[in-house]
Amino acid sequence: MNIYLNLKPNNYDGESDLLTLDLPANYLDDIMRYVRPIAEQKEVSDFKVLKDIIKESATEISRRSYERKNRKNKKR
Predict the structure, then answer these.
(1) Which of 20, 36, 39, 69 could form a Cys-Cys staple with 49, CB 3.0–4.6 A?
(2) Burial of 74 (C-beta count, 10 Å sphere; 0-12/13-18/19+)
(3) Which residue, among 24, 11, 25, 23, has the nearest Cα to 51 in the 3D structure?
């Protein structure tokens, strides 16, 4: 299944990125196990919840800092 997702915030007028995902069927089935209960609870479509999960995940990953912390012991 191909999913096309625009990561541009609603009030942003600059350049935007289009994220294209090609999810294999077995991964999609695993993800949909989480999506369907949320969609039923919120009374929205499965696809909207799936897009929201992907969008929030991409935002969170880009927000995190993956710089390695200095873990060496100080010299005595």
Answers:
(1) 39
(2) exposed
(3) 23
In the block, which residue shows the tokens 């990561």? 7
Q: Which two tokens stand for residue 11?
A: 């009030």
pLDDT tens, position by position, 37-76:
999 999 999 989 988 888 888 778 878 766 666 666 655 5
For 12, the token pair is 């942003």
Q: CA-CA distance, 25 to 53, in Å (whole number)?
A: 17
| Rounded-to-integer distance, Cα 26 and Cα 13, Å | 37
Q: Give the amino acid at 49.
A: V
